[in-house]
């Protein structure tokens, strides 16, 4: 077989991941929105890839709380106005070089609507079909082998405390499942916006597994976790730092 590959050194490795809009609380109590595309999930934990100088990072490490809002593929118009803005009063030199400017009210600039959360202080974004209230668990400095770059980027683990989903995304006859044929996340691939294909490319053998069977990996036998129960406890206490 003829080798059809070439060796390249890409500056970024954005192969295609869902866009997330992270809401956090600024020190003065206002809300910040940080659109990112470096996020992935295992069980009820999410790992966020963030720059250490980002206002989202600073807020999250200080308050230990955030909301992970997932936009649908028709919501890019809300993200572009705030894509090159930062909540930091003093814009870091790196971001200045990329054309970023300070914005003290990203909800106003984006046209998005603030909605109060149940368990954390940062608000949810009303327009986003999926909103996950979350609590900081741990953070890891990346590039530890490079003395002059160690800690510039962080991998931050958060625990999902409560998940809000738009009703039309729920799978019929199931209390806690999403209908993948209805969920259309906004995808970022090498800084460009995309959506999913309108239908499955083929049937998935993995999809024959009942999703509830995965809870054996995440549900603690010792500690009750509200985000991983069969039903939401309406009397559940608010999360504190």
TrEMBL record:
Keywords: Flavoprotein
Domain of life: Eukaryota
InterPro entries given in the database record: Flavin_Rdtase-like_dom, Flavoredoxin, Split_barrel_FMN-bd
Cofactor: FMN
Domain called Flavin reductase like: residue spans: 16-168
Name of a matching Pfam family: Flavin_Reduct
Gene3D superfamilies, A to Z: Electron Transport, Fmn-binding Protein, Chain A
GO molecular function (one): FMN binding
Keyword hit for Cell division: no
UniProt-listed PANTHER family: FLAVOREDOXIN, FLAVOREDOXIN-RELATED-RELATED
Family per record: Belongs to the flavoredoxin family.
Name of the protein in question: Flavin reductase like domain-containing protein
């Amino acid at each position: 077989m003829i080798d059809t590959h070439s060796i390249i050194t890409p500056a970024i490795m954005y192969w295609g991941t869902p866009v997330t809009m992270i809401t956090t609380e600024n020190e003065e109590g206002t809300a910040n929105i940080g659109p990112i595309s470096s996020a992935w999930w295992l069980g009820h934990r999410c790992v966020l890839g963030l720059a250490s100088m980002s206002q989202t990072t600073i807020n999250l490490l200080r308050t230990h709380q955030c909301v992970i809002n997932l936009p649908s593929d028709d919501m890019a118009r809300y993200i572009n106005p705030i894509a090159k803005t930062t909540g930091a009063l003093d814009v870091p030199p790196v971001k200045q070089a990329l054309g970023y400017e300070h914005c003290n009210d990203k909800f106003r600039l984006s046209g998005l609507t603030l909605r109060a959360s149940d368990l954390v202080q940062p608000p949810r974004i009303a327009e986003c079909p999926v909103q996950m209230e979350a609590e900081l668990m741990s953070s890891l400095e990346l590039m530890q082998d490079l003395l002059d770059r160690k800690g510039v980027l962080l991998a931050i683990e958060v625990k999902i405390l409560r998940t809000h989903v738009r009703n039309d995304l729920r799978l019929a006859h199931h209390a806690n499942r999403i209908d993948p044929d209805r969920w259309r996340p906004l995808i970022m691939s090498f800084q460009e916006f995309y959506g999913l294909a309108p239908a499955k490319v083929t049937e998935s053998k993995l999809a024959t597994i009942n999703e509830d069977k995965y809870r054996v990996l995440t549900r603690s036998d010792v500690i009750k976790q509200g985000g991983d129960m069969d039903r939401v406890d309406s009397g559940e206490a608010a999360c504190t730092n």
